[in-house]
Amino acid sequence: MAANANAHDVLVILPLEEEYGAFCETLRSLEVAFCKIDSMPFTGEFRVLTGARAELKCVVAALGESRLHNPTVNTQELIRNFRPKHVIICGIAMTGLSKDALPGHVTIASEVFGLYQAKEGSYQVHTAEGYCREVAERFHEHSRKTAFKGKLEKLRQNRTMSEPYDHKCVFHHRPIFCRDELISGPQERERIYSSLNSVLRKTTAYDMESHFILQGCSYLRVPSIVIRGLSDDGVNKDKLPQELRAQVVSYCACLIVDGLQHGVLYKNAAPPKLSPYQLDLTVLMSKETSTPFDSLGEAVNALNL
C-alpha cells in the first residue's frame, strides 16, 4: 500500500514500537480490518465502519526511538504523508500528581501542558495549542457507556494480569503534563508538586512526547487529542509487570475504535482556530543538526509552512 495515496480521517500516533505492536494486536482481537504499509516501518492502515454506515480511513504509526529526538518535525512528516483530518496521540504514560490515578488506568486529557524547568525549583508551563477539547470530552462520555464497558471487560478478561493490576480500568478526564526528562524519584515529584498551581496538581499523567507532538499538529492546523494508558509511576517502573504496558495500550485502542464506530469524532466537531506560526524555537529542532532553529524564518522555511 503506497503512502500518501489519499487523505485519512484519523492518524493515531504512538511514540514507541512496542506500543504500536500492542495497538495492532488489539485491532486484530476486535476484528478490525488492518494491513501494514510496507513502505514505512511500524505503520499500518485500518478501517472503521460507523453506525451511519460510513467508513473511516485510519492510519496508525509509531515514531520509534530513532525519531523521538525530534517528535515535532517527525509528526509533521506523518501529517504531510497521510493528510489526516484528526490526530489521536496514544500510548503509555506515567501517573501524574493526582493521588487517584493509578497504573492500569487511562486518561483522556482535558488539556496538555508542557513543563520546563526555568531554574532550580521553579517551572515554566506552556499550554499546547490546537487541542480539540470537544472531541476529548465526547470520548470520555463514551468511556462511561454500559455497552463499551462490557466490550472492555471482555478484552480485560482475555489478558492475564497479576494483582493488584487486574482491576477494572478507570477512565480519567483531567490535564496531563509533558516534560523533556523523567522524574528521577519521589523527592523530585514532591518538589514539582509544591511548585505548581491547583490545576496542575490534578494532572493524571505525564509523558515526554505529547506536548511536542501536539505542536507538530498545531503548526499544520490539524485538531488533535491525547489518550494515554498509565503503566507506571515513573519511580518504581522496574517493579511493575511488563504486561501492564500492553494492557493499557489495548484499553486505549478499544476506546478509540469503539468511539469511532459510534460517531464520537464527527458529532458537531468544529476544528479549533489555530494560528499558523505559533512556533516555540526552544523545542522545534532542525532535523539535520538536532539543534534549535536560530530564527522564526529559518523554522518556517525548513518546514515549508
Defining traits:
305 residues; alpha/beta; 13-stranded mixed beta sheet; 13 strands; 23% strand; globular
User: SSE order in H/E notation?
Assistant: EHEEEHEEEEEHHEEHEHEHH
Number of helices: 8
Specify the structural class: alpha/beta
Q: What level of helicity do the residues show?
A: 25-40%
Q: Measured on Cα atoms, how large is the radius of gyration? A: 18 Å
Beta-strand content bin: 15-25%
Low-confidence stretches: 269-305
Distance between the termini: 28 Å
Let me know the average pLDDT.
Answer: 78
**Largest sheet descriptor:** 13 strands, mixed
The outline comes out as globular
Number of strands: 13
Report on this structure.
The protein has 305 residues and is α/β, with parallel strands linked by helices. It has eight helices and 13 strands. The chain has helices spanning 17-29, 71-82, 133-143, 146-157, 186-195, 210-219, 243-261, 296-303; strands at 8-14, 34-36, 43-49, 55-62, 84-89, 92-95, 106-108, 112-119, 122-127, 171-172, 176-178, 205-207, 224-232. Strands 1, 2, 3, 4, 5, 6, 7, 8, 9, 10, 11, 12 and 13 form a 13-stranded mixed β-sheet that branches. The longest helix has 19 residues, at 243-261. The two termini are 28 Å apart. Mean pLDDT is 78; it is low at 269-305.
